[in-house]
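Q: What structure does this chain adopt?
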Amino acid sequence: MGLGEPEFGKLHAQLGAAMLGINAAKGFEYGNGFDAVTHFGDEENDVFTGENGHIHTVTNHSGGIQGGISNGEDIYFRVAFKPVATLMMQQDTVKTDGSPTRFKAQGRHDPCVVPRAVPIVEAMAAMVVLDNYLRNKATRL
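A:
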């Protein structure tokens, strides 16, 4: 039972939207992601095989999602987060009239998402997968 839809409800698009909705998230890739563009199609193709009555892929370059639908393999992706923006050093900036000045922040004004990133990503992924699972169950007659 594949989760997702081939057109407007692609599983990887839903995962990407959920991950990029997390504060400080700046990038999302699934499967081989951006690295895939450096390979030829025959190097990225996930060949299907049958083993012990189960169909699976020999490789998982697609990250468990093909054509917007999960294929039964492990779903894997990466999310990139920006670093904390407040710098504890002097930096050039401008005043409200546009004239140059230097500024040094005093204290933290933004949270560090790093310690919370992993459980947040896991929770968001679980919600997307569960939503697709329930949608799949509700549309089966």
